[in-house]
Amino acid sequence: MSVLQQVLTDARKLATRLRDHDSSADSLLSQAQGMYKHVESMKEVSRNSAN
Fold first, then answer.
1. pLDDT tens across 11-36, in order?
2. pLDDT over 80 (residue 51)
3. φ and ψ at 2, to 5 degrees?
4. What is the pLDDT of residue 24?
5. What is the b/e burial string over 2-34, where b = at least 16 CB atoms within 10 angstroms of the residue's CB?
6. 48 CB burial (10 A radius; 0-12, 13-18, 19+)
7. Confidence of residue 42 (pLDDT cuts 50, 70, 90)
8. What is the pTM of this model?
9. What is the DSSP string of 1-51?
10. Which contacts of 25-34 are long-range, i.e. CB under 8 A and separated by 24 or more positions?
11. Which distant-in-sequence residues (6+ apart) come within 8 Å of 1 by Cβ?
């Protein structure tokens, strides 16, 4: 395999890994946003029950 072919193969692998990591980051961000909303809801319930 030539050096150019190896560089292209490595670039493809890297692009795939970056896409996978991007998908994972999106999923984690969505989960964090959901947790934030849940915590905010719990705070609101707590405030309302305290009054």
1. 999 999 999 999 999 999 999 999 99
2. no
3. -75, 165
4. 98
5. eeeeeeeeeeeeeeeeeeeeeeeeeeeeeeeee
6. exposed
7. very high
8. 0.69
9. --HHHHHHHHHHHHHHHHHHHHHHHHHHHHHHHHHHHHHHHHHHHHHHHH-
10. none
11. 9
Residue with tokens 């996978």: 20
Q: Cα 35 vs. chain centroid, distance in angstroms? A: 14
Structure tokens at 19: 């896409």
Q: Which two tokens stand for residue 10?
A: 């490595």
